[in-house]
């Protein structure tokens, strides 16, 4: 394969804010999944001294990163709608075009280019939208569960809202079990997401993994 | 404390009104207490305890005492639907009659199928008479779910063969207030568990009035008598939570006030029943305690004269006072995350892992195909 004489160009696609929040979110999800599974089934043996609050500390970490995820989910929604660059918003045009869907699905089956209006393909855009909705739902159910363990401050302020959600969902047990189901959506998403990011970089020499680190998309010049 | 002052005045006015009514029993509460060897001091202690339980300031204890004495002026009609009578048992089958059961006996109980002497046509007549005489004034307590399928024909009560559905609708019309005693009357209970062939429902889904739900299988005698006392004292319903349960009883989770809570925070768990942790009184979360999802005052009020409650006895809470608990809280000896999903016979984690595995296989296939299918675009 001979690429040294192919002219490359670079485009700035992801702003610093998008990149920072992407990785903060990744870190939050990692910590939340691990601590969440621990809370669901505490597997560490008890310490010799009950002054060491094993469960308490794990829950503490879960709460801190849970609040981080809530904040990131809000900021990320804001950035999507009001961020300076419209590279994300432009992708909505592809979502409404049947042709774009066919082009993207074909490209995943090794047929043709992946031409897009914005930075995301239609299937990719819808997947990200769904994961954002799930993020909002896991944040809401998490806050409802939190309002039941701390009744002052933020927990107290959320009390009325938490009772309302608990009423709608038919009790705290369904709130907790849906919180658990949503976790699996993230786990499965992360695996597909990482594979697709790597694969896209190799196949299309476009939007490869390093773009979410550096912000630049290096790709061959169109000829 | 303006609201408390206003509430106090309201209580006083209400009790004044009750005092003007004809007592239903020949013996006053005082003589009954003397007969049973309950001292005045015990009675005042009980009044103070009920006041604290209802989250009212101490001066209200005189109102509670007065309300208990005037309880025979407030007509109560107690109906039994699709149920096991466990809720009534919780109240009346104490080994020695305590003040709770004594006061329940003292309340002007117009109709109660388990406790009344009448039977057959006479019982039916008593009910009709009570519903008519005290129309608009009686307190209606319902025990048991209401079957609604086939127009309610799964439950008929009495010699006239009225369905439970008809009886409840009729009785609810003239009720001053309605109390669902127990999980069945509140949320349907075991009769309403999937697939619910009789279409059993809670009372509040049948009638158009506010119904106080006293969840619990059974609710403790304190929660039943406390709610009755509140109504006698103020003539209105207490503050209710999202499922219309009194906040003074169901305002906190079982987990919040559990005596084993320290064990939970420390990460000391019973791994299986009978192990060393169980003997040490460790937290029962891993053997299925649903205390974290259940609103009730069991840890503080307990059952059977404050003797014990499930967690003290060594079994986790199974969430009996929550809506749909037979389906939502199962399996009772596993934490929720390890619940078997109906129809799949697998836990959420197993299903998740299988989907994850399928995803990995799909990704692998795509990756391998990519190697052969003209791997890179130019």
TrEMBL record, chain A:
Q: What is its main location?
A: membrane
A Gene Ontology biological process term: respiratory electron transport chain
Membrane-topology descriptor: Multi-pass membrane protein
Which GO CC terms are listed, alphabetically?
plasma membrane
Compartments, record wording: Cell membrane
Single GO MF annotation: heme binding
What keyword terms does UniProt attach to this protein? Cell membrane, Electron transport, Heme, Iron, Membrane, Metal-binding, Transmembrane, Transmembrane helix, Transport
Q: Which InterPro entries match?
A: Cyt_b561_bac/Ni-Hgenase (IPR011577), Di-haem_cyt_TM (IPR016174), Hydrogenase_cytochrome (IPR051542), Ni-dep_Hydgase_cyt-B (IPR000516)
Which residues are listed as membrane-spanning? 20-40, 60-83, 125-146, 152-174, 181-202
* Entry keyword Transmembrane helix: yes
Domain Cytochrome b561 bacterial/Ni-hydrogenase span(s) in chain numbering: 14-215
**What family does this belong to?**
Belongs to the HupC/HyaC/HydC family.
Q: Give the matching NCBIfam families.
A: CytB-hydogenase (TIGR02125)
- PANTHER family for the chain: NI/FE-HYDROGENASE 1 B-TYPE CYTOCHROME SUBUNIT, NI_FE-HYDROGENASE 1 B-TYPE CYTOCHROME SUBUNIT-RELATED
Name it: Ni/Fe-hydrogenase, b-type cytochrome subunit
Q: The organism's lineage?
A: Bacteria, Pseudomonadati, Pseudomonadota, Gammaproteobacteria, Alteromonadales
